[in-house]
Specification:
Layout (H helix, E strand, L loop, with lengths): L2 E4 L2 E4 L2 E3 L2 E3 L4 E5 L6 E6 L3 H20 L1 H18 L1 H12 L3 H25 L5 E4 L2 E9 L2 E5 L5 H15 L2 E5 L6 H12 L7 E3 L4 H9 L6 E5 L2 H14 L3 E4 L5 E4 L5 H10 L13 E5 L3 H13 L19 H16 L3 E4 L15 E4 L6 H4 L6 E7 L2 H9 L3 E2 L1 E5 L3 H8 L6 E4 L14 E2 L2 E2 L4 H8 E8 L2
Parallel strand pairs: 9-10, 9-12, 10-11, 12-13, 14-15, 14-20, 15-18, 17-18, 20-21
Antiparallel strand pairs: 1-2, 3-4, 5-6, 7-8, 8-24, 13-23, 16-17, 19-22
Helix pairs in contact: 1-7, 2-4, 2-5, 2-6, 3-4, 3-6, 4-5, 9-10
The structure holds nicotinamide-adenine-dinucleotide.
Length: 482
């Protein structure tokens, strides 16, 4: 069987290379994290499929590059239209495949996926100013030229959202693409490939290959005939990719993990702070940006904990297809065991677990209860490691200087949240926090014009607006003498 029926659509389980469906002799099994339902056997690529996909993308590159931003924009807008028309199928597919909320996909995620494509298509047309300036009578002409074949490697926690943050600017810049989605969530990328075909995007411009990171992933990033690697995933994988890329000096963009601080200052609106704090459980904690280290000023800690407790106990865990569900399961048994391992070790160390701390036995399967660890020992792994599950730590602090030092005392620098009733007070903190994105009195507001990325081990490079094109394009200056 080369197709499976999910959400009323036929999803091809093979690679999409050069506009054709291509199967591999070997497959891997894909199941739903909601209830373990068997979804299908997916083609498991290796070196030869990586070679074929890169060759197809290379062959398609000159014509795609020559089309120019306007020509590409027409096709990319058509693709975005098709994403909108297929919102229901894409939403159901993503929920079945990765267990995140159907209602979020329908109302938030899939409209944003279409927007990711439209935004970068338009940015390439309207905002990449081909600057001209004079130097001693000579004219400098700056341009963003297509760079070649971009390999995009993505994780499972927000499959199509994260993939289109890369696909949008790469295709708009005139690059051709080989996408390898995570092996736990292969389906939406496969359906997306069909939409690119329907949109009239020429064969070979967009390719999807399926399989394991250590097999086809490694083959792609070590390939000598690629021009860009854009990776979202974990720090250990990024190190392996960076070593492979070094041999060919392939430029890399890395969006990696986090252990973000959320700081609740003494002057904070505590209802707002508690509301933002429970949002850190969104997507069952499988969010790179989550503020998983909550620092609360000691004078308001009890009141904050009470309000947080009221809101956290109202979180409804269950089937992500149910409109009333707030959080669903963990993605996979391997990941569930990893999350549980962190919590079990914290318990064994004697850390105080206030909420959850165990699998949700009523639901069974991969559902782990939202968990809160109170005042864990400084430096213990529950405070320092990225767990990527529904596990928050809550600590108290006395002074701004102390909380700044503790908040910055991590190898990560992806995001931070500050809650304060006084903008100047908040600014004193945000000025010295090390993070790619900081939210004050809010969370998860993301504008595609703004830079997005991580400091320290949370990443290399920034996405958003012209920052994306600075990576996917070859930036060129042509100096012309009069
Ligand atoms: P992961 O690093 O295990 O895998 C990510 C992708 O890399 C998968 O497609 C995988 O198959 C592939 N891969 C694995 N080994 C490879 C190799 N040797 N060569 C090439 N590709 C390889 O990460 P994950 O578990 O899928 O995702 C969770 C991580 O992603 C967390 O650390 C999370 O914080 C991070 N993340 C970061 C952002 C961000 O924007 N900064 C967003 C989402 C997730």
């Amino acid at each position: 069987m080369t197709t499976i029926s999910v959400a009323g659509a036929e999803i091809d389980t093979r690679h999409y290379i050069g506009g054709q469906r291509v199967s591999s002799a070997e497959t891997f099994t894909n199941t739903s994290p909601i209830d373990g339902t068997f979804l299908g056997e997916i083609s498991r690529g290796g070196q030869s499929e990586a070679d074929a996909a890169v060759a197809a993308a290379r062959a398609a590159f000159p014509a795609w590059a020559a089309l120019g931003p306007q020509g590409r924009g027409v096709l990319l807008h058509k693709l975005a239209d098709l994403i909108e028309e297929n919102n229901e199928t894409l939403s159901q597919l993503e929920t079945m495949d990765n267990g995140s909320l159907l209602r979020s996909h329908r109302r938030g995620v899939m409209p944003r996926v279409a927007m990711n494509i439209r935004f970068f298509a338009d940015w390439a047309i309207n905002e990449l100013h081909h600057e001209k300036f004079e130097t001693r009578g000579h004219t400098n002409n700056v341009s963003w030229d297509p760079s070649g074949v971009a390999v995009l490697i993505t994780p499972w926690n927000a499959p199509l959202m994260l993939a289109t943050w890369k696909i949008g600017p790469a295709l708009a810049a005139g690059d051709t693409v080989v996408l390898k989605p995570a092996e736990w969530t292969p389906l939406s990328a496969s359906f997306f490939a069909d939409l690119t075909k329907q949109a009239g995007i020429p064969d070979g411009v967009f390719n999807v290959v399926q399989g394991y990171g250590k097999e086809i992933g490694s083959a792609l990033v070590a390939h000598p005939d690629i021009n860009r690697i854009s990776f979202t995933g974990s720090v250990p994988t990024a190190k392996v990719i960076a070593r492979a890329a070094a041999d060919n000096l392939t430029p890399c963009s890395f969006e990696l993990g986090g252990k973000s601080p959320m700081i609740v200052l003494e002057d904070a609106d505590l209802d707002l702070a508690a509301e933002i704090a429970v949002e850190q459980y969104d997507n069952a904690g499988q969010v790179c940006l989550s503020g998983t280290r909550i620092f609360v000023h000691e004078n308001i800690a009890d009141e904050f904990a009470k309000k947080f407790g009221e809101k956290a106990s109202a979180i409804k865990q269950g089937d992500p297809r149910d409109e009333n569900t707030d959080i669903g399961p963990q993605i996979h048994q391997v990941h569930f065991d990893r999350v549980k391992g962190f919590v079990d070790r914290a318990k064994a160390e004697g850390q105080e677990i206030v909420w959850g701390g165990e699998p949700n036995d009523e639901l069974g399967g991969l559902f782990f209860k939202p968990t809160l660890v109170k005042n864990p020992t400084e430096g213990s792994e529950i405070v320092t490691s990225e767990i990527f599950g529904p596990v928050l730590c809550m600590m108290t602090f006395k002074t701004d200087e102390e909380v700044i030092e503790r908040a910055n005392g991590t190898e990560f620098g992806l995001a931070a949240v500050v809650v304060s009733g006084n903008q100047e007070h908040a600014k004193k903190i945000t000025d010295v926090l090390v993070a790619g994105t900081i939210w004050v009195n809010c969370f998860f507001v993301r504008d595609l014009r703004a830079p997005f990325g991580g400091s320290k081990k949370s990443g290399i490079g920034r996405d958003g607006g012209t920052w994306s094109f600075d990576f996917y394009a070859d930036v060129k200056n042509t100096v012309v003498s009069p």
